[in-house]
Amino acid sequence: MSQKPNKGPLREPVLHKLYQHYLVSEESADFIKKVAGYYTVGALERLAQADHRVSRRAALLAIGFLGDYQSNQVVGRALHDDDRVVRLIAENSLRHLWERDGNSLQQKKLHKIISLNEDLKFKEVLPLANSLLERAPWFAEAWNQRAIAYYHLNEFQKAVHDCHQALEINPYHFPAAVGMANCYLELEDGFAALESLRRAKRLNPDMDGVNAQIDYLERTLEGK
Predict the structure, then answer these.
(1) What is the number of structural domains in the chain?
(2) N or C end of the chain, less CB within 10 A?
């Protein structure tokens, strides 16, 4: 009887090696260049759903660098992965993907809007955001950024509307759900705030602050 040939140990995937090297070196540019030389974004999306957790971690990290909004669904689903590291990488990668919708000019305008919000220049955000949304009404992150500006300008109903729009376009946009809850709290609508927070938790279960807010509101609203 002939014996089956010994295949030897399974070879470690290239992506695993590149990921392990990145963890040690923290050289993102080198990681991006080498991953792009071996894998398409489509291949990375498939690996993001693989059985091996290292494959999922590495693929989601790479998608965060190389992907765009088209990868939103694959990465959004990873927020419910069994592995906490995978979930954390997915959350970080999503925030990058949300800024990579539209063309380069629209992305540049969005980055300016984000920068103005970070600098607390909320009134300056509105004309830029209005202009962007007139030309790109499907840009979910633009709605979210305008909602942030409206919230800080005490325009809570307008901010709620923009959060709704962001979530309508991008059902994985958990920050918009949290933002909507904050608006409802300012409007003294605890029940709507609670529902928005529960929605945020369904999208991203790992937000400890949201879980604490839900517990507080549930106790506060009990019996009302």
Answers:
(1) 2
(2) N
Helix axis angle for 190-203 and 208-221, nearest 10°, is 150
Which distant-in-sequence residues (6+ apart) come within 8 Å of 146 by Cβ?
A: 113, 125, 126, 129, 130, 133, 162
CB 214 within 8 A of CB 194: yes
DSSP string, 183-221: HHHHTT-HHHHHHHHHHHHHH-TT-HHHHHHHHHHHHHH
Q: Which two tokens stand for residue 116?
A: 């103005």
**φ and ψ at residue 117, rounded to 5 degrees:** -60, -40
Closest CA to 112 of 65, 148, 145: 145
* Lookup: tokens for 138: 């499907």
**pLDDT tens for the 224 residues of the chain, in order:** 445 555 545 567 899 999 999 999 999 999 999 999 999 999 999 999 999 999 999 999 999 999 999 999 999 999 999 999 999 999 999 999 999 999 999 999 999 999 999 999 999 999 999 999 999 999 999 999 999 999 999 999 999 999 999 999 999 999 999 999 999 999 999 999 999 999 999 999 999 899 999 999 999 988 66
Handedness of CA 182, 183, 188, 189 (dihedral sign): negative
Is residue 168 a part of any domain in this protein?
yes
Length of the chain: 224
Considering the domain architecture, whether residues 120 and 203 belong to the same structural domain is answered as yes
